[in-house]
Amino acid sequence: MDLYERNYMMMRCLVPVMPVTGFDGVSRMDGATDLHLRVSERFRFTSEVMLTYRFERDGEIVCEPDLRVRVYHDARLAEVMTAHPRHAPAFDLEGDAAGGRVCERWRVNRFLFKWLGYCLRQGHGFRPPPPGG
Which domain of life does the UniProt lineage start with (predicted)? Predict the structure, then answer.
């Protein structure tokens, strides 16, 4: 649970105020890859966001890594629900009915922890627009 709590704290640094459902944002920093955030669900106690980089490869847009993260506002936790990391098999927590993939679950959430730290060190963030702007 400590890892999920840390992921939540870092998500809050990256996204201090959770935008509404359907928000599509891009954080651009000089010398860094653009970070894309999409809010797919926003409820009182939970939100789901997609977090990724987007690259063009052979004329197509490729999202890597492509993470769907559930943020539990009440419990102050953030957990990867699905992941499509580069050079690794896809991870789908909801598709794993038996729940027997504990090691993969830890590994993909550890990846989120490291990636969020990297993004924050680069200065990425999704801030609400200023009032009246």
Answer: Bacteria
